């Protein structure tokens, strides 16, 4: 189980770090042009997008960096990112973007798996 938790954690961390970096570094129009599923950025200002990117990047780093120092931060970061993704799912729901809404639910489930696994099944010591 520990191996599965690490695989899921690292994949999520890499993906969210890349996504957060893109939001921080790219201007809003350039980020919007990256893909067809980026219509949600129309609901937010440029500064809000930078903050969202910072939250994603910080959460991604929190999934892996404190593992050897403060292990309790790993499941807390996973829990925080699950809550963050529920905000993303709410935006998708409000915009009637159902295919992407399902993707957000998958992320919530994966972050829940990591949090549950690290809190209860295989805590880091």
Question: What's this, in brief?
Answer:
It is a multi-pass membrane protein. By secondary structure, the chain is an all-alpha fold. It contains five helices and no strands.
Record field, number of beta strands: 0
Determine the structural class based on helices, strands and strand pairing.
Answer: mainly alpha
Q: Determine the fraction of residues in helical runs and give it as a percent range.
A: over 70%
Number of helices: 5
InterPro entries: DoxX (IPR032808)
Keywords: Membrane, Transmembrane, Transmembrane helix
Membrane topology: Multi-pass membrane protein
Organism: [Mycobacterium] wendilense
Features:
125 residues, mainly alpha, 0% strand
How is this structure best described in words?
With 125 residues, the chain is mostly helical. It has one domain (2-121). Helix content is 75%, strand content 0%. It is built from 5 helices and no strands. It has helices spanning 2-25, 28-32, 46-64, 73-94, 98-121. Keywords: Membrane, Transmembrane, Transmembrane helix. The chain crosses the membrane at residues 6-26, 60-86, 98-121. It is found in: Membrane. Its main location: membrane.
